[in-house]
Write a structure and sequence with these properties.
Elements: H1 2-26, H2 32-58
């Protein structure tokens, strides 16, 4: 169950990052570097989730 809890936490963080990206993009003076960093963080989480899914499917 620890993996499931970790996946839930990662999913929540992924959604939070998506919301931050959207808010930043809508700002009049949006920071492209900030958006890029948020997208990188989101991608790292997506990769972690994919790895966890493959581990749970292998078990």
């Amino acid at each position: 169950m620890a993996i499931q809890a970790h996946m839930k936490t990662l999913n929540k963080r992924h959604q939070e990052l998506e919301a931050k990206i959207e808010r930043e993009a809508k700002r009049a003076a949006s920071d492209d570097l900030r958006i890029l960093e948020l997208k990188r963080q989101k991608l790292r989480i997506k990769d972690q989730l994919a790895e966890l899914r493959s581990q749970t499917n292998s078990s």
